[in-house]
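Ops channel
N.P.: pipeline sanity check, posting one input/output pair.
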């Protein structure tokens, strides 16, 4: 698809929507909206689910705005491509252990767990780290296989290795990116990852037919 595709960044009150929008706009995508409107989401060719902060607040906001049902319809039934970012990726999981047990969207079976690291590694994990790419397509086709990205998190997505497209080694080897059919997620922030992040966005949007 060209830059004419309709891209909608889901607005549910806790995502870093404008920084994500600015990064995607920089690549020349003009038909880009930040929205929680049902019709706008339905008309989208591709969705982006950003997220910052705590899992429980994020998933509560999503449900309070009645977005779970429309996203299930668009992503699970209609197979619309979606990219989750940071907490947006974590919400793809079955549930999270952050601040108690909280149900996720359950699109990719797995659990969000706290980083349990050696004492020499700081939590939260903030800063640049290389990722180890396991599945190059479609997210990493323009990136080197050991590209670095910007992370800012205390929890990680523990799931079956068949869903993992990239790992990061930071005291432990944890999931840096996931994919299942039309559902994709990255633990890092591509919108803060300069050229490597822009390459990932470009690869993702160009892969959509």
């Amino acid at each position: 698809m060209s830059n004419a595709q309709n891209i909608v960044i889901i607005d549910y009150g806790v995502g870093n929507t404008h920084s994500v929008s600015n990064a995607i706009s920089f690549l020349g995508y003009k038909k880009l909206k930040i929205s929680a409107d049902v019709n706008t989401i339905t008309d989208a060719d591709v969705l982006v689910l950003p997220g910052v902060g705590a899992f429980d607040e994020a998933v509560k906001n999503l449900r309070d705005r009645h977005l779970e049902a429309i996203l299930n319809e668009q992503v699970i039934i209609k197979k619309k491509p979606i990219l989750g970012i940071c907490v947006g990726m974590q919400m793809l999981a079955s549930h999270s252990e952050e601040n108690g047990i909280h149900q996720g969207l359950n699109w990719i079976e797995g659990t969000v767990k706290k980083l349990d690291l050696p004492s020499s590694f700081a939590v939260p994990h903030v800063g640049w780290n290389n990722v180890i790419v396991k599945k190059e397509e479609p997210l990493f086709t323009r990136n080197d296989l050991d590209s670095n990205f910007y992370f800012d998190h205390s929890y990680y997505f523990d799931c079956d290795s068949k869903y993992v497209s990239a790992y990061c080694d930071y005291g432990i080897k944890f999931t840096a990116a996931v994919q299942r059919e039309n559902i994709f997620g990255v633990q890092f922030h591509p919108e803060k990852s300069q050229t490597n992040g822009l390459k990932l966005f470009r690869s993702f949007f160009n892969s959509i037919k």
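N.P.: looks fine end to end. The longest strand covers residues 125-133.
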